[in-house]
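Board notes (copied after class):
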Amino acid sequence: MTHRSGERVAAVLTFSGAMILALGSFGFFVVSVMVATGDERGEPVSVAIAGMAIGGGFLLLILAGVAGWVAINIGELREWARTVSLAAFVASVEGKLHGALIAARHAEDLLRRRAQASTWALRR
C-alpha cells in the first residue's frame, strides 16, 4: 500500500497532537491527586477543583484516543475529510451571511428608533 508524503506528514502531526493531549490528561490527573490528598482536601473548593481536573483529564484522554485513531486511519479518511471540509466551508459562509443579515436588521431598527425619537422631540 502506497502512502503519499502529505498523508504521512499529517499522520505524524496528528499522532504528535494525540501524544500532547495524553500528556495533558496525565497532568490533569496529577493535579487532581495533588488536590485530593492535600491539607485542605475536605474544602468544597478543593473538591470542585479535583472534580474538574478529573473531568478534564478524561476528556483529554478521549480526545487523544480519537486523534490517535485518526492518525492510524488517515489514508482511509481522505474522502471523509473532503466532505467535512466542504461542509465546514459552507457552514462558515452561511454563518457570515447570517451575521450580515442580523447586522442589517439591527441597523434598520436603530435608524427607525432614532427617526421616531426625533419626530417626537419636534412635536414637543
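Comment from the instructor: The mean pLDDT is 87. DSSP finds three helices and no strands in the chain.
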